[in-house]
Amino acid sequence: MIYLSDTPLDVVGLLAAAHHPKAGAIVLFSGEVRDNNLGRDVAFLDYEAHESMAAKMIAAIVEEAKQKWPLNIAVAQHRTGKVAVGESAVVVITASPHRSEAYAANRYIIDRVKHEVPIWKCEYFTDGTKKWGGNCNCHDITGDANKHVYEFDEMKK
């Protein structure tokens, strides 16, 4: 399984390969590069990773999800290198007999990949400036580098 790719992710191909006769639900999450972040115009992103560690961690996260939920298929791939606006930076696909498990497992995988795996992004803005950060910018939203949006959302419930 490929967990990191320095070429565009084949979202359609990954989805086509995710069908399983015992799966009644397939959930696809594609993290897309958008043209703005926190009021600034984004030109593109550039991702770097500690590749061997990142691949091992993504594999472990996917395996943990398979242990927690009855998944027929679980796939996670993350881009490295320059990623253009409109391209997929990360893809997670989960397939299971029922939708609740497929959704829960998908959310679990993407949240852990974004917040734990050693992948860093540099945002390049259209004004020529750039900003390095982790694979998430939750601290810009929650105000605390140790609080992530998914944890913050859970606290509000």
Task: List low-confidence stretches.
Answer: none
**Helix tally?**
5
- The H/E string reads EHEEEHEEEHEEHH
Shape: globular
What gyration radius follows from the Cα positions, in whole Å? 16 Å
What do the pLDDT scores average to?
A: 91
Largest sheet: 5 strands, antiparallel
Q: How far is the first residue's CA from the last residue's CA?
A: 36 Å
Please count the beta strands (DSSP E, at least 2 residues each). Answer: 9
Instruction: Decide which structural class fits the backbone.
Output: alpha+beta
**Fraction of residues in β-strands:** 25-35%
Helix share bin:
25-40%
Descriptive notes:
β8 (119-125) and β9 form a beta hairpin. α2 (51-68) packs antiparallel against α3 (99-116). It is built from five helices and nine strands; from the N terminus they run βαβββαβββαββαα. The strands form two sheets. Strands 3, 4, 6, 8 and 9 form a five-stranded antiparallel beta sheet that branches. A four-stranded mixed beta sheet has the order 1-5-7-2. It is α+β, with helices and mostly antiparallel strands and 157 residues long. The radius of gyration is 16 Å and the shape is globular.
